[in-house]
Specification:
With 292 residues, the protein is α/β, with parallel strands linked by helices. The chain contains 12 helices and 6 strands. The chain has 2 domains: 184 residues, Rossmann fold (3-Layer(aba) Sandwich); 70 residues, no CATH class. The protein is elongated.
């Protein structure tokens, strides 16, 4: 099946034309290697899902990456109280751990027992004790990645979950925990606040003030766009001037990933075959660019 330019959901290398993400992934890996916690927050269709999924593959030789999606694995009902959330999170964690080459070990078995036999007693404190034991016994560091965190941001249980992550991060020199935690969403949850006492609306603090600023540029450069067009050119032999087209697209889109792909998709699927641009060699030109 021929590749296409993708403008919906995440990009998959075997299905879609993509920019080379390796330099960006290496930069993000630096955050992980330093043991930093951070949020990848960008507008919709800016690579927030594609990049973490590629990062999981990039890190797999050095880390166990537990990658979750709160939109898929944690429905609204799962946030109604600590116990419900903790059981749902633990189930998802165990399922992911068993699907990758993470040695189960006794700590993971104890977490499964807590889910199956003592689930009424499993709340955040108990959940994190189990997670700490798993991190301690694992033969390589664990990285936790959670996508679509916006769906959870207004829930008190989620804020309490962040507070647990924060507490273990602060105590990481004494208590085993995740090497790095990466959250992905539209908004920067670093600005979320947590009430320490429900009756005191003025007693507020951020549960995610341990997170470092994420400064990796997620937009595409003209050179990265050119690399994607070269991939297309190898398959279609349009005769386009790759560098010229890449620069035109970059100038028009400022490298916004969705707009880059959308622009290329318009040329490839709408302009090509039109009355004025019957063939690909006509469309991948300055005139075709203006038509798109």
């Amino acid at each position: 099946m021929s590749k296409t330019f993708n403008v919906t959901a995440d990009c998959k290398p075997n299905l879609h034309y993509m920019v080379d993400l390796r330099s960006r992934l290496a930069e993000i890996k630096g955050y992980v290697d330093r043991g930093e916690y951070f949020t990848i927050h960008r507008a919709r269709q800016y690579g927030k899902t594609t990049t973490p999924r590629a990062l999981k593959e990039y890190l797999k030789d050095e880390y166990y990456v537990v990658s979750m999606d709160f939109q898929m694995q944690m429905s609204h009902a799962k946030f109604r109280d600590e116990n419900t959330f903790s059981v749902a999170f633990a189930k998802a964690f165990v399922r992911i751990a068993e699907n990758m080459d993470m040695l189960p070990g006794r700590p993971l078995a104890r977490l499964k027992t807590a889910i199956n036999e003592n689930r009424e007693e499993l709340e955040l404190v108990e959940l994190f004790l189990h997670l700490s034991d798993i991190c301690r016994d694992a033969d390589r560091p664990l990285v936790l990645m959670i996508d679509e965190i916006d769906s959870a941001a207004n829930n008190q249980v989620f804020l309490d979950f962040l507070s647990q992550l924060r507490g273990y991060y602060i105590d990481r020199d004494k208590t085993p925990t995740f090497r790095s935690v990466i959250l992905a969403g539209v908004y920067d949850i670093k600005n979320l606040k947590r009430k320490f006492r429900p009756e005191d609306a003025h007693s507020m603090n951020s549960p995610w003030n341990i997170a470092v600023d994420f400064k990796v540029d997620m937009s595409f450069s003209a050179g990265e766009i050119a690399g994607m067009l070269e991939d297309y050119e190898r398959e279609h032999a349009t005769g386009m001037s790759v560098e010229e087209m890449a620069e035109l697209i970059y100038q028009y889109t400022s490298g916004y990933p969705f707009l880059v792909s959308k622009f290329c998709k318009l040329i490839a699927e709408e302009v090509v075959g039109s009355e004025d641009f019957p063939e690909e060699r006509n469309a991948w030109t300055y005139a075709g660019f203006l038509e798109a």
